[in-house]
Fold these 3 entries.
Entry 1:
Amino acid sequence: MLGLVLLVGLVIVAVTGLLSYAAYEPRLPGNDTTPTKGLLGFYLFDWPTNPVWMYRLTQGAHVIVGLTLVPVLLAKLWSVIPKLFAWPPARSIAEAVERASLVLLVGGAVFQFVTGILNIQVFYVFPFSFYPAHLYGAWIFLVALVVHVVVRLPKAIGAVRSRDLRRELRTGLAGTRPEPPDPDGLVAAKPAPPTMSRRGLLAFVGGGSVMMFGLSVGQTVDGPLRRTALLAPRGREYGTGPNDFQINKTAASLGVTAAETGAQWRLAVAGAGRLHLSREDLLAMPLHTYALPIACVEGWSTEQIWTGVRLADLARLAGVPPGSAGVTARSLQRVGYFGQASLSAGQVADPRSLLALRVNGADLSLDHGYPARIIVPNAPGVHNTKWVRELDFRVERP
């Protein structure tokens, strides 16, 4: 039962994680967080802007399902501890292949979960770069999972069919009996009397998963539930008034000061030529308003109402026809990652892609990107660059 739950859940986590990597558009200038990925990025494709909620759904599922699976993973590892330390390691070539896949499977799962949880908690203690390590670890784990499933799935299905689930859920501790000896060595030769029923174990693990889900899902659902997201690193850090939503990184933490975002701020727009625009110049251009979500790789997301100038209009102003031009947005931030991000021609051409000046009818706060920030439908949060100082439009070659 635990293995089948993990099989479904881990497939969801793996697929959504790989989609998140594709959403970063690593083929565009400056976006590749894993430049040595080699063939591991074979599946990359142009990330769409529709539907606008797709990244919010996929990355939310990646983080929330992953956290929910933690009790199941721990219980599964506990249940197969004898197998992990069986000796001799292998009695045949087939068993050697299975044991090797088991080492990669268990090691890969522990590595992916530990590094992933530390990353979403913004606890960077890695002696290596998280992004390539997480990508490499994911592919190693997936290969081991496929091998393990091929070898073990028939036996797992047979084990589930050997017992009636409803009967087990009605069996208390007094009626619980140990499994008979098995050829795989998972059952103790002389088991002690049971201290927990099978339904008790399932309830304990299931209860832990429900608790993990309840303490984290609010960061993705947003609204009133966001205050319940006690496991979310951004669950209680918000702005005020119309800017009352998650702050991923503050201006002060990234070296952005109020002085350089004041009246002297100018936006450099480069394309066929180069021009500089003040905030007043931007406000005098045609403004457009859209309700768009913003979603972070850490799992939180929120929908707000953004007002600003279309990126397509700024591309035209720079002498570059939208639909053929991508853009690199550069920020005032001086430290940290993602001080710039590149967007594709398709993202620039979407009429909802904005250089946002206001949110929910009010000026952006400094921590939310004042005087101007990028908002693109269905893009990862870090590609919605804050404190934009330059937009460098480039014609994309077919």
Entry 2:
Amino acid sequence: MQASKRIENLLGGGSDGWDVFNKARAMIASGIPVTELTIGEHDIRTAAPILQEMHRSAIDGHTGYASIPGVAALRDAVAARVSTMTGVPTARENVMITPGGQSALFAAHIAACDPGDRALYLDPYYATYPGTLRGASAEPVRVETRAEDAFQPRAEDIAAHAEGAASLLINTPNNPTGVVYSKRTLEGIAQVCRDHDLWLISDEVYDSQVWEGEHLSPRALPGMAERTLVVGSMSKSHAMTGSRCGWVIGPADVIGHLINLGTHTTYGVPGFIQDAAVFALGQGPGFEAEIAEPFRRRRALAQKVLAAQNAVALVPSQGAMYLMLDVRSTGMSGEDFALALLEKHHIAVMPGESFGQAAAGHLRVAMTIEDRAFEGALRTLCAFAESLI
């Protein structure tokens, strides 16, 4: 028997972009110490009070089937957070709770695209985006952004691919670049969506990690609330990556359809996890700022290190837990540089090519180890780059 073409073609016949990461993990498994600056995993664990609330809820019996759209208290809490942060009135009926942001991305594209529809996404992109679109039976269409624009998308480039498309996927603050899309950029994106009748799927899981400027949800722009689906998650804002609790925000009628999808796929999120998420959201924006603070601090350390050398350039680092470093001065591709750095210095970073061709010659560095080790690894990376010039 043969598997479906959809599942066999999930990666489009190419790599999933995680070759360097997998090699680093194999080295660690063989006993070789490696400094990992690869994945967006906090170096702190989920806060003890959140886990205690999760435990209390489970012991009290919230271990059976939970409400598929999400428990009312959590949908209300998410709606309140979104209303406060974006200025867009949001109610329970606009919220669907999902098993993490990745599930929300898939659900949003199922809602926006029919089989075979063209679905636009921006390059550089988070590694799962093209496979998610293929999994939803859409045709992924890459729209390249430019390093010389600090990876801010150009509306005219999106418009050039928009004829006949059904959706556009964006991510700000951005993974992998660390760029926060400007109001001008988002207004241009919104105009293209209105002109070409596109659904806008806005991945905003890093909305609590903004170091410069401010995060603007495109749902807040004129005429966009009715055509925008926002993806959110507890993973990054509350260090709850393993709890798998996310959401889709959108028009009430579409959320109703997504509830039907949940009934036939995930069948909801465990109730004790949802109760813990309600508790976590109840800690307010101060708690989210506390979770984000190590990345703000390490960004400042990185700026100091990078300012003292000329081999590696920093893409404007405005948000999220990553740095995008330009190593084209070495004459190496991002992948070759990352492999050489791993072999010689046992430091693992992600090549820009793992996130599309627009970031070729770049590296994504996750700011996810303690400050002194992070600073030392960056200094070693820069010295290695200087040795190649």
Entry 3:
Amino acid sequence: MYDHLMNSYDKSLSHSGVSGERLAKRLHAVSRIGLTGDDGSRRIAFSPEEQQAKDLVKDWMKKAGLQVTQDGAGNVIGRIEGKSSTATVMSGSHLDSVPNGGHFDGPLGVLAALEVAQSWKDENIVPEKSYEVIVFTDEEGARFNSGLTGSQAMTGEWTEEEKQNLRDENGLTFEQVLEENQLSLQTFREAKRSFDNIEAFVEVHIEQGKKLEKADLPVGVVQGIAGPSWLNVSFKGAAGHAGNTPMDDRQDALVAAGKFVSLVEKLPRKFNRTCVATVGKLEVKPNGVNVIPGEVNLTVDIRDIHEDTRDTLRDAIMLLAKEIASARKILIEVEEIMNVAPVQVTKEMQQKASNAAETVLNKKPLFLPSGAGHDAMIIGRKTDVAMLFTRSKDGVSHNPAEWSSLNDCVETVHVLKVLLEDLCSASK
């Protein structure tokens, strides 16, 4: 990976204390931990591999002069004390991965935040405000199908009932997994911290889309992080023999579901250009070749960075399901099983990020939404947040083919550095 990163690197981008070669070496070193046969990453939450990656980053933090701690949820915190203020600015991301993921989703955000701290040390700069580099535990949620664990612990945005119901693929409870890692529900509770003096959190992440690639820009400014609403939809008709039931005397649940799926695709654009809706899971019963489908259960994932339009779209999709079922004389059940509020990046934070990008790139940046959830979404409920996206080749993520050029990664670090120096200055 190191050679591939360095092959097309423009070394003139290494300046102001930022080293592309150092960043490439660190991305490479993290990628070797939990390396899969497909040259992907497997660092599942609370695994030895995730902790090994954390320990490596902790060592780099110490060498960069940071005070390093690991809290009761497994979050790693590297801190630089500010010269004249108790206020704190944070930046970071995560090191865990999906079972066969890429090498940039998460680690780039951690190492970009660390590279800024390292650049300050190399340039003998101490920020006015305190600065923390954060490695959040279990952002991806691959172990329990419930992510953002570390940021939830830090903010207190979780319930004990929810965590106690979690099981991994081996049947281990969340509490048992904590105990395997010398943690407990008690230490997890104690990871909650006050945000009274935390003024901002900035997260760098690969885009997980193609907008920056199409715009031929290395870095983009995030406007907001979409919150998902998930619906379970059940169409219940009548199963029957495929040969003996006339076409005009059927209650075919799959035909109803098929019409629903095709129309769901067309609804988002009627409400907002940032709305999306996806039918990602579908189960047909009895699922026989010669049997009219009697029941179809499916899910709809609805997202937007604006809660009002997201919820309006959700209501329209629920109404659509009921209208289709009624027209075909079949039963319908619709249940919302998840509703996470979107997080808006304030205009002020967007402008600060935009100014930083324009300073580095000498051109106007692209503003774009984040359709995926990130730790910044949880932290954003407690303090101001900003996000920077790095161009990702072909928009690929959660896949060994995930790739961002070292040029784009280093350009992002420079933008992050300018933004953090603004946020860490004496006047916010």
